[in-house]
Records
---
Amino acid sequence: MTECKSLSAKIATIANEIGAIAKDGKNAQQGYAFIEYAQVAARARELQAKHGVAIIPTVESYECSEVKNKYGNIGYHYLLKMDFTVVNTDDENDKITAKWIGEATDYGDKGINKAITSSVKYFIMRLYNISEKGEREADQDTPPPAVAPKAGNKPKIDQAFLCKVRAKLALIKTDEELDNYWKQLHLNKQYQSYLLPSFKTRRGEIANGVE
């Protein structure tokens, strides 16, 4: 009968077998090489299937704040609190759960996706002790350093509302639903300027069959 290894033993085995991962990614703005998420996920997935380990990520909560870069462009910084449960598939009671944080700044509507991707990537790298010597950033398209917008007479924007609307957009499946949602919001010109790009992006995703 084959001996059932403990989760810690399996993690140690995967860490030993995973080997070096090449820095095939290149940061478009700052020109440095980095280890791509796709490479990390593919190698880990292969060895986890082989040795019977599963990782279950969940987002516990997130914060969204507005930022502005030196060119005056407005973006959003997302800070996620995540839980990662690592399970021994041969014994579902043999598992560990770790708290983790992911963050990303984006000047479109992909901030949450970037933050989750970064969080998953770095959790896997830390779990299996994958080296990242010389790596400075998580994403290829890291935006310019952002600063908080200066105070002025411009009315304060409800960031929680913006985040809620963008989250709702991801659930909309048709152009008709998208149009109806836009009408239901009754946005003033200021909020329209913030949210119109997100609606246009979602319309394009719907046209291309993106869930």
---
Amino acid sequence: MTRKVIAAGLVLPDLTRTVAEEHLEELTKLIETAGGTVVSTVLAKRPRRDPATFVGSGKAEQIKSLVDHHEAKLVVFDEDLSPAQIRNLEEMIGVPVIDRSALILDIFASRARSRESRTQVELARLEYMLPRLTRQWSHLSRQTGGAGAKRGVGETQLEMDRRVVRTRISRLKDELKKIEQTRETQRKSRDAAFTVALVGYTNAGKSTLFNRLTEGHAVAVDKLFATLDAKSQRTAFEMPKETVVIDTVGFIRKLPHHLVASFRSTMEEAVSADLVLHVIDASHPQFAEQREIGQQVLADLGVEYEKVIEVYNKSDLDGFRGSAVAAGLRGKHRATAQPRNLATHISALTGEGIKDLIDIIRTREHAGGEMMVLEVPYRASRVAARLHEVAEIYEQTVGDHATIFRAWVPHDAVHLFEAYSADVLLEARDVVSR
């Protein structure tokens, strides 16, 4: 049965009430994603966080009244709470209290499918839980069992639990290192391919775009964090070279730092990719903030600015604001004096703008090679076969003794065919004729 939940947030001096309400709305969606039903929301306005109850005792009493009135079973706060704050709030309110990080960790745990994502989530949850173990054994803290230096049962149990958790964390980190080595091997196996990573805020439409570009069947639903495992598949379109599209885990504001650290190897698919498509839901009221969060994550990962293309998605929806997007881009780049990123508008759902996006990807791929006219003798069949594997052939003409190709060849393969270049052969024939 779905649990009734109270969602609570805080308006601080550096945050307007409108923005705080938007953040609380996102928390509501997170709660719904986790299977809860928000029956009421609370926003407290304070000059600073209350060290004991986060929102202050008066607001905590108000939350208790709402819990009693709605028969709610859980209260979720939109900020990280200290162990003491959680303990105090639970004593005052009378139902379990969790913070945003715990909620997101629960969602990730329920969505993790692969060995890698399950390991990453378990590691993040244990690192989150470690400093919070104290309150779980507080009921034993009074059982001192004697005087002097003798420790209580609760303290002994707490130390045992911490040791178990630290041991498990160490093992999970070792396991992740092995998984990361496997992922690195997979990346190297794709070296010959042109890789395109899809990144962006959660629910921006990355999986829908992945399916559109690859004719794949990635889960694409209107839910936060539908994708946790990086998936890769060849594009369904004709491209200059083999092109692989990679779908990655979504970003979100206030993402728990333990999760960021655990999922770093997955997110680094964007670092190693040849091209990064930053997918932005331009129909969302806070699309500009979501874009900034994505840009910050990419910068933190060390993704080169020049290889990012901003893809403004959901142009089929009434809320899409193409003019606002354009104005925002102009203002942003004037302020930062950065070269403007290439941007395009699409609807991954209907296919609108996909042809233009494919052309942009092709242009980027073409920049990694050069056009060549090659005269390959019939006896050099292996050379011709290799050319078909690595190059994009635009024209093929049969001659008396050779096949003449006009083809785009990647820079790293040009040396394989230079001896068959029409210009080189022409120069050689001129030397012989003299």
---
Amino acid sequence: MLRIELSILKEDAPQASLLLANFASFDPELSEATPEQLPELPGEDWHRAYSATRAHLDKILSHYAIRAPHRVEAPMQPVAPQQLDEIGIWLKSVWDICSEEQEQLRHLREEHRRTAQLLRALDQFMDISIDLSLLQKKSALLDVRVGTLPRANMPRFEEAVALASYVAIPFFSSEEQVHLIIAGASGQEQVIARVLHAASWRAMDVPAEFHGRPDEVRRELNENLALLEQQQIQADARRRAAPAQDNLREDL
């Protein structure tokens, strides 16, 4: 192995770099020169610009599901900094479009995920034959609460709730937890608060999207889910078809 130092004119650097790269045996080292010895390192600016440009290109190719060719048939040419800047500006404009499309897809996926979560949350309310929005409203006359407590606490809890003039209506249960609605006349909040604390009560929020009876809510959520899935399919089809427009694939 030989250590070689080359001194060339800056305008010849791109051509020299290409020749060395094609030679495939030259391993460049980072310079250890001080700024006083070598105040200008044009290769660093070029490499920084290349890295940013290549990052945009890779993200664009990934967005459009385009595979970069394994081989470039045309002979490689040295790229001047101005050319690299022009390519970088064009790729940035293309990536801005891709980024907007990705944000739209992300929003659709997030809405789909949230709607699916609401459907799973609705399962525990399916045995309630009332408009679920009634469980979300505050009333001046009626104190209605939804929550859970350990199954082992149910017998004593029902007795304590009855003494406070409340009714408890179980509507869903698992091996360890019971989901209940409790209701009573307003004005007994302090009394019922002590009962709930002693029973390890955990309040539940009924999602604001739950308007109507459970079967009606489920039908609406399923319709929304199907619409979101169709919108994702259409957006994905547009994304894959875009490279065929304006020779985008060939230019990339």
